[in-house]
Amino acid sequence: MQVVVLLAGVVDPKWRLDRLALRPGAALVDETGLPRRLGPFDEAALETALKLRDADPAVRATAVLVGGPEDDALLRAVSAFRPHRAFRFGGAATSLWDPRAAVRLLGAAVAAAAERPDLVLMGREFGDGDDGTLPPALAEARGWRFCGLAHAVTLAGDGTVALRRMRGPREEILRLRPPVLASVTNDRGNRLRHPLLKHVMLARRAPVEAIAPPPEAGEGAPALALRGIAAVPPPPRGGGACRLLTGPIETQVEELATLLRRWRAVGEG
Amino acid sequence: MRRVCALVPLGDPAIADPFAAVAAAAAVAARGGGQASAILLAREARRGDAALAQAAREGAAEILRAAHPALPEAPQAEHLLAAFAHLLRTEARDGLFILPAGPVGEELAARLALRLDAVPLGRCTDIAWEGRTLLARRPAYGGRAEARLATEATLCLAAMRRPAAAAAPAGGAPAVRAVTLDVALPGDLEPPGVAEPAADAPRRPEGARIVVAGGRGMGGAEGFAQLRELAALLDGAVGASLPAVDAGWAAVAQQVGQSGAFVAPELYLAFGLSGTAQHLAGIGPGTRIVAVNPDPEAEIFRVAELGLVAPWQEVLPRLIGRLRRA
Ligand SMILES: Cc1cc2nc3c(=O)[nH]c(=O)nc-3n(C[C@H](O)[C@H](O)[C@H](O)COP(=O)(O)OP(=O)(O)OC[C@H]3O[C@@H](n4cnc5c(N)ncnc54)[C@H](O)[C@@H]3O)c2cc1C
Ligand SMILES: Nc1ncnc2c1ncn2[C@@H]1O[C@H](COP(=O)(O)O)[C@@H](O)[C@H]1O
Q1: Is B70 on the interface with A (CB under 8 A)?
Q2: Is B136 found in the same domain as B69?
Q3: What was the ipTM of the complex prediction?
Q4: Above pLDDT 90, what percent of chain B?
Q5: Are residues B125 and B167 in the same domain?
Q6: Closest to B247 (Cβ–Cβ): which among A171, A188, A253?
Q7: Strands A60-66 and B36-42
Q8: What is the mean pLDDT of residues B71-87?
């Protein structure tokens, strides 16, 4: 059973993006000086792959970090979790903004990991530029069965993959025959474990494996071009002036209770 | 002016607001000086009467009612994809097609685009044309940045939320056409199993009039038990931030934000939430926020109308007590 987890990484969300802009003359975002880490959905997908590996000796788990040399430190962090294999796929100009080009690149990344993948895992959003388009687009392009927003994935004895997801008001359990691509959402059950310190130290010294995409993966003009990017302030709301209550806490709570009682009465009346 | 058309799958309980696509298409078309059309897809044609009226109200000037009798009661994405792909191949070879934002609509938009050799635009906040070039804006970096994207493609798919301001309804009655589809639907799909909902399954925050939400600052399950108590007193639902879901204090269906539920209640009570862009992206612009947080510098106070600078431990038990007595 070949399990491939694709990882994108994000800019550390604690860092301000004020200077975010395109690189001069290129449709690439300049992220110079912004530290990268795994996003919450990368982490959920990676933990899901590690759990499958732990549960079944027949599972071979390969982690692929899609990105350029600036991601090598992140790749080492991934290696410390000891998947069977971890490598970086892409070059300095890796861009995922055009979904059709991105899908060619991601398809090549999976192919570099496994000749016949059974299960491909990726976060529900693949990096900072994706809003959930890339996982279903990749599945569709490859003809793989797709399950979006899975929060738990197990292998059933009959060779199918069992996936749980919330779909509107209900929790669904899908049983899909490989090859399957699942986009993974965060959940208590797939919080990324801590790596062993020993493995962190080993990964820090080990060479990283990097694979350059085949030329045909980057061919053709982009169908969707990135024209610009800029940090945006949160949209104004609440009139911009928050009334902070003062005085004894009992009085403050009474004021809030009064507001809620009135609000409730309006709703009922 | 390009064709702008909403694709509306009807009767799927997983799609909270299918007509958001029509309202969004109408707004995009109006800005370009044109009118939107809509394709309504259902199992039976007769289901469509109320839907027809609503699509017209939301601004569709031209409506195609498509019925496929072989659609299952609870269609899977594969069924809707097959039907919509057929409709687009036979009815419309180019244009901008808009699906309702949300997990189902966004998956359909992405997969339809790949299946039809079109360009997927993702979940856009704004779409306009500059000559022949389509320009789309969408959030990136967890809603902290905005990307501007351009394409010359003539067939594009996007997902959109209901716009803040509705476009003026199209004047006069819409032109309506009906088709019955017989395109083959994938027949070998096992319907998904449905997990038995737990007796204490939380109410979903979408659609509630009031959401009582908690974040990392709740510190544990005890705080969330009190949030549930408060929500029950107010007939509301409990929401949570991503870290609170990760910690297991709330279920994944309760996650509010960029990557979670989009809620637009009248009131949002925010306890132990710092007010990150990723979280606020899931709260409707018209919602009034009340925040409880001991840190007076917390971002949440920049967007709240009313604030209590205090830990939840000092507020929740007292508030619950007072509302109980009332
Ligand atoms: C790709 C990506 C997508 C994301 N999507 C989402 C999303 O959809 N939804 C989401 O919520 N997050 C999302 N996040 C996470 C986001 O970046 C933040 O980590 C998260 O929103 C912070 O949640 P929080 O406000 O609960 O925690 P924190 O930011 O840690 O804030 C906790 C707050 O609690 C306050 N506090 C402490 N003690 C108390 C007390 N006793 N009583 C009351 N208050 C107290 C603190 O002062 C602080 O302000 C995403 C992140 C990434 C990278
Ligand atoms: N864009 C940035 N450039 C340089 N330093 C930053 C940037 N964003 C945040 N920091 C710093 O990173 C540290 C951690 O940030 P925070 O957790 O957001 O307080 C603080 O010292 C910040 O001042």
Answers
A1: no
A2: yes
A3: 0.92
A4: 85
A5: yes
A6: A188
A7: unpaired
A8: 95
Contact check, Cβ <8 Å, B106/A185: no
Rg (CA), chain B: 22
Classify residue B190: in a domain, yes or no: no
Decide which of B160, B180, B200 is a domain's last residue. Answer: B180
B105 neighbors B166 (Cβ within 8 angstroms): no
Q: Are residues B129 and B13 in the same domain?
A: yes
> Structural domain of residue B277, as residue ranges?
210-325
Residues on chain B touching A167 (C-beta within 8 angstroms): 14, 103-104, 192
A240: which DSSP letter?
A: G
Ligand 2 neighbour A32 (Cβ under 6 A): no
Residues B166 and B262 occupy one common structural domain: no
- Tens of pLDDT, residue by residue over B217-262, are 999 999 999 999 999 999 999 999 999 999 999 999 999 999 999 9
Decide: helix, strand or coil at residue B210.
Answer: strand
Residues B56 and B159 both lie in one domain:
yes
Number of domains in chain B: 2
**B38 domain residue, yes or no:** yes
- Nearest ligand, CA of residue A37? 1
B31, two tokens: 């800005």
Pair (B151, B256) in one structural domain: no
Q: Which residues of A touch B234 (CB under 8 A)?
A: 260, 264
CA B140 to chain CA centroid, nearest Å: 17
Residues B58 and B167 in one domain: yes
**Domain range summary for chain A, segments of one domain joined by +:** 2-218
Instruction: Say what the pLDDT of residue B92 is.
Output: 81
For the entire predicted model, the pTM comes to 0.94
B259 annotated among ligand-binding-site residues: yes
Per-residue tokens: A220: 């053709």
Q: Has domain A2-218 been given CATH number 1.10.357.20?
A: no
Confidence at A82, pLDDT banded by 50, 70, 90: very high
Phi, psi of A20 (to 5 degrees): -60, 130
CA torsion angle B254 B257 B258 B264 (round to 10):
100
